C-alpha cells in the first residue's frame, strides 16, 4: 500500500487473496498509514499490526464495521523502513507484487528505481526477477511526467491498472464498485475470485449473468 486515497481497494484485494488461499507479504508505507487513519480512523501500528489489520479488513467500503470476518494468519507484515526484509531480495520466493493503491510518488519511485523504502525496493526486485507487478494507480488527473513514468513501468513488464470501476456489472453499492477494481487487480495477478459479474456478451440487449 502506498499513500494514495483508496484504502477500500487494498482491503478488498487483501480479503480476496486470503479467501483464495494465498499467503501475503504486506508492506504499508508511512504515507499510507496517514491515509488509512484519515479514511478509516484506524492507526496501523507495527507492534499491533494484527489487531489493526483485522479491524481494517472488517470494514466495508462505507466504513461500517462488522461487514467482514477475515482471518489474517496467512499475512506477514514487513515495516516499510526494513530494507533487510525478505521481499527486498530476489531470492525471497514470491509470485509477484500488487501495489494497491499506487500514488504518483510511488509510481515515480518505482519507475526510477529509487528503492527509498521497502515498497519501492520490493517492486524493483519483482521487476528484475521478471515476476508480475500490478500497479493500481489511483490519483487523477495525471500529468505528463506521471504518464511517462507509467509507460516506463509498462515497458519494464508491469501491468498499469488505473482504479477505474465499471458500471456494467450491475453495481448497487459502493462495495460493488470497489470489488470490481479489486477483481481486475486479481485478474492481472492470475488469482481466481468471484468479486464481480463478468461480461459474457449481450443477450437481448442486456449483460448475461456469469
UniProtKB/TrEMBL annotation:
Pfam families assigned to the protein according to its UniProt record, in alphabetical order: Flavoprotein
Domain of life: Bacteria
MF GO annotations: prenyltransferase activity
Record domain Flavoprotein: where: 1-188
Keywords: Flavoprotein, FMN, Prenyltransferase, Transferase
Classification via Gene3D superfamilies: Flavin prenyltransferase-like (3.40.50.1950)
Protein name per the record: Flavin prenyltransferase UbiX
InterPro entries: Flavin_trans-like, Flavoprotein, UbiX-like
Coiled coil: none
Amino acid at each position: 500500500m502506498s499513500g494514495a486515497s483508496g484504502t477500500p481497494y487494498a482491503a478488498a484485494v487483501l480479503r480476496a487473496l486470503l479467501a483464495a488461499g494465498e499467503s501475503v507479504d504486506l508492506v504499508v508505507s508511512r504515507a499510507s498509514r496517514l491515509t488509512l487513519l484519515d479514511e478509516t480512523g484506524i492507526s496501523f501500528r507495527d507492534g499491533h499490526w494484527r489487531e489493526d489489520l483485522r479491524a481494517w479488513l472488517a470494514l466495508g467500503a462505507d466504513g461500517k464495521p462488522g461487514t467482514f470476518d477475515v482471518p489474517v494468519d496467512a499475512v506477514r507484515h514487513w515495516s516499510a523502513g526494513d530494507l533487510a526484509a525478505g521481499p527486498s531480495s530476489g531470492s525471497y520466493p514470491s509470485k509477484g507484487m500488487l501495489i494497491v493503491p499506487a500514488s504518483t510518488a510511488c509510481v515515480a519511485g518505482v519507475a526510477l528505481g529509487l528503492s527509498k523504502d521497502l515498497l519501492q525496493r520490493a517492486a524493483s526486485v519483482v521487476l528484475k526477477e521478471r515476476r508480475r507487478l500490478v500497479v493500481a494507480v489511483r490519483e487523477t488527473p495525471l500529468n505528463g511526467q506521471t504518464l511517462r513514468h507509467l509507460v516506463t513501468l509498462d515497458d519494464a513488464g508491469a501491468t498499469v491498472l488505473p482504479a477505474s470501476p465499471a458500471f456494467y456489472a450491475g453495481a448497487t453499492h459502493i462495495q460493488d464498485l470497489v470489488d470490481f477494481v479489486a477483481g481486475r487487480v486479481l485478474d492481472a495477478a492470475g488469482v481466481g475470485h468471484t468479486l464481480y459479474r463478468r461480461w459474457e456478451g449481450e443477450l437481448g440487449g442486456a449483460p448475461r449473468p456469469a
